[in-house]
Specification:
The strands form 2 sheets. Strands 3, 4, 5, 6, 7, 8, 9, 10 and 11 form a 9-stranded mixed β-sheet that branches. The longest helix is centred in the first third of the chain and has 13 residues. The protein is built from 8 helices and 11 strands. Helix 1 packs parallel to helix 2 and helix 6 crosses helix 7. The termini are far apart. By secondary structure, it is α/β, with parallel strands linked by helices. The radius of gyration is 17 Å and the shape is globular.
C-alpha cells in the first residue's frame, strides 16, 4: 500500500498513516476507544483493527496496556504495526481471520475485547468498488461471528465493547447468549430529538446484571449547525481532541 496519508487524531496526540483511497477511519473508532474502561496492566484485543484508530487511541489514553489486534487484510495489519511504532505504542498485531484466529492468539484471553464490525450485512450488494473498503464496511462475516469470537476471547468478568449502526442493534443482541450479561446500550445521535444512528454496546462475560438502555448521547449542541466552527458538546470535544474517556455508567 503506497498511496497513503498521515492524519492527526486526538488533537494531534496520535498520528495515523491511512490509505488515501479505501477505508479511512472517522470518529467512530475514537468513540469506541473512549468507551473502553481499561486500566494499566490489563490486556486488550481488537477484532478487525484496521490501521489502528481504535486500538491506538485507547493505547494513547491508557499507557501500560497489553494491546493486541487482529486484521484479515495484511496491508492494513502492516499499517497498524507502523502506526504503533510511529506513536511509540507497544502493540502486537496479528494477521488472520477472526473465524480462524492464529493458534497462539486463540489460546489467549483478555480483560477487554473491542470491535467496530462491518456496518452492512454480509452479502447485501456492494458498498464500494474498492475491495479493501468494501471488506471493511460490509465484510464476509456475520455479526454472530464477531460476537462468538469476542466472547471466547474474553476472560471471566471481561468486557466486550462494540460500536455499530443503530439499525443493526437487533443483530448484536440476537447473537449474544447467556455467557454475556450486564448488557448496556448507549444510543448515539447527532443532535437532540434526532433518531440514533450509532449505538455503543457493552457487555460483561459471566455477569448477571440486567439489560439497560441508556438515554441518547448527543454529539452536537443545538438543533442545527449554524457556523463553520465545530459545535460538539464539551464531553464529545474532549474525546475527539484530547482522547478523554466516555463518562458512561456501568
Amino acid at each position: 500500500m503506497t498511496d497513503t496519508t498521515c492524519d492527526a487524531f486526538l488533537g494531534g496526540r496520535l498520528t495515523l498513516e491511512q490509505p488515501a483511497r479505501g477505508y479511512r477511519a472517522g470518529f467512530d473508532p475514537v468513540l469506541l476507544a473512549a468507551a473502553v474502561k481499561a486500566r494499566a496492566d490489563e490486556t486488550v484485543l481488537e477484532l478487525g483493527c484496521g490501521a489502528g484508530a481504535a486500538l491506538l487511541s485507547l493505547g494513547t489514553r491508557v499507557p501500560g496496556l497489553a494491546l493486541h489486534g487482529v486484521e484479515v487484510q495484511p496491508a492494513y495489519a502492516e499499517l497498524c504495526r507502523r502506526n504503533a511504532a510511529r506513536n511509540g505504542i507497544q502493540a502486537t498485531i496479528w494477521d488472520g481471520d477472526l473465524r480462524a484466529l492464529p493458534p497462539a492468539l486463540n489460546n489467549m484471553t483478555f480483560h477487554h475485547v473491542l470491535a467496530n464490525p462491518p456496518y452492512f450485512e454480509a452479502g447485501r450488494g456492494k458498498s464500494s468498488t474498492l475491495h479493501d473498503r468494501d471488506l471493511a464496511l460490509r465484510g464476509d462475516t456475520t455479526t454472530a461471528d464477531w460476537i462468538e469470537t469476542a466472547t471466547r476471547r474474553l476472560r471471566p468478568k471481561g468486557w466486550l465493547t462494540l460500536i455499530h449502526k443503530a439499525d443493526r442493534l437487533h443483530d448484536v443482541l440476537r447473537a449474544m447468549d447467556d455467557r454475556l450479561g450486564a448488557v448496556s446500550v448507549h444510543p448515539i445521535t447527532g443532535r437532540a430529538g434526532r433518531p440514533a444512528d450509532r449505538v455503543l454496546i457493552r457487555a460483561r462475560k459471566g455477569a448477571r446484571g440486567p439489560f439497560r438502555l441508556h438515554p441518547p448521547i448527543h454529539l452536537h449542541d443545538g438543533p442545527q449547525h449554524r457556523s463553520d466552527q465545530p459545535d460538539y458538546r464539551p464531553e464529545i470535544g474532549a474525546i475527539l481532541r484530547d482522547g478523554a474517556s466516555f463518562p458512561l455508567p456501568d
